[in-house]
Prior knowledge:
The chain folds into three domains: 2-50 and 58-63 and 74-190, no CATH class; 271-444, no CATH class; 450-517, no CATH class. It is 28% helix and 10% strand. The protein has helices at 2-29, 31-34, 45-49, 55-60, 80-83, 85-92, 112-115, 123-132, 138-142, 146-152, 154-162, 175-179, 184-190, 196-199, 219-222, 276-281, 287-291, 370-374, 388-393, 404-409, 451-454, 461-468; strands at residues 225-226, 229-230, 235-236, 249-251, 257-259, 306-310, 317-320, 328-332, 335-336, 352-365, 424-433. Strand 6 and strand 7 form a beta hairpin. The radius of gyration is 29 Å and the shape is flat. Keywords: Membrane, Signal, Transmembrane, Transmembrane helix. This is Methanogenesis multiheme c-type cytochrome.
Amino acid sequence: MASLKASLVAVSFIVLVLAGINLYLGYSGNDLLAQHYMTDGEWTDSSCGGCHMGVYEEVAESSHVQRDIAQWEPLTNYNVDVQGETQWVKEYGRYHPGGGELEEYGVDIDCMSCHEQYGLYDAEKRAMAFESGNFSAANDAAMEDAIPVVQQDPIHVATYTLDVVTPLPMLVAFHDAVNAAPAKTSCIDSCHAKDVPTTAVMWASEDYEEYDVHAEVNCVECHTAKEHIIAGSEIPESETEDNQISSGQEESVHGESVTMKSCEDADCHEGISHGPIADAHLEFLECQSCHIPALPGGELPGTTPLKSFNWSSGERVDSYRMEDFAPQLAWSDDVQESEVKVPDSKNDSDVKLAPFNVVTGSWWDAGQDPEVINNPNTSASKGDPIPTPEVKAADSNGDGTVTSEEMQAYDGDSDGTPDYPNAVLRQVDLHYKLGHNIAGSETGMAEPLMCDDCHGVSASETLQQVHFEERPDCLTCHEVQPVIDWAALGYDSDPAETNPPTNFSAKTIDITIPGTKPPEVEREPAF
Length: 527
């Protein structure tokens, strides 16, 4: 018995000595073991692939990574063919998770941009590396402050030390503390703060919970993910054989469908009723239409919401919404069919009314697309945007303003023939769909919309003429832009108009929540 005890003591002593040596060697002296701990924030097959087989390939094929950097959009108005891929990476690489088309620039998929859990991922340092052209160092720069903290974390150090007595690394003990599922702050800080100018979302604000009833909900609870395909509120138009798209669905590399969670989902607001009349509206009206009644203007965390942007001189000139404002309702089928974000029409298939922030964008087009020539300000066609360097070069008198005459006479190749004889300046009301800043009875900038916010505004003959015979600026009469414009939505008049007019301000909307405790009734004692 004594010899057994002595043997156990000896074994324990040896284990402790080995553990001490293991700890002393640390992450630089024991690289073979250290590779299992992902403290450098980089994927390696040896450290990650053993458990996450095939995941790297999934991520590499995801829509976040497989972004076409040559895709044009009005807000950036960047022409890769003319201005170059390298310059695009400098200016916009910060919003790309790496991999895909950035691999040739030495930028691998940056897993930690989504999965770092200490709140120390520095997206600004990554952005600065891109801007300076030091592309291959961008991902490391973002983790420069996080890596020492991760390596010195007590849980991390303890499991690393005890690993010597286990057949496999004790990864489970600390994995989620270091590399768990994306947190809301990761989505915002690493990338989606860029949505503030077009959607006025307040998610980067310290008091976001005052603006959105869903402030405590994590992004992936609604934007469901499968095989690293993340569902969005709008999806790109698919290239399927029959070109049929299920609303809100995307497909993963293995054909798995991913759908944005709806308000009526069993885990959310299933069974809630607003009464038969209001509930009937849900056949053609999205919940957000009433529950995003107002948006904030002025300087917000991230930037200031845009009212318009203008590329007519070759440099973007912006105007901003400095006061709080109301979204506009328009038709949408949840499918992003073009880079030019114009709404659908009432007669399109599977459309519902949804809230949008409308930003007026201006840019020059070559005037070669018949749709653009006939309807330059309302066509959804991308057309043929003129690259901004050529717009600048067309300013023949150098006054900083490019006129139609100058643009149509521009001869950049000096062959004696104008390059853009049919050039047209487009001015398009771009509709950016809203899904955040959701108001409730006690949260939000304003109460959710009621019946009279949409109906009854044109119930009299005089107002009917004002609204539909001519289209003056609504702000001529209204201090705040009305949330709904029946003529723009394809109606001849308010569809709820009655004769005599109905007083919609007297209408109320009652809410019934299934399973709630009935109100207690106070009664007088029997005796």
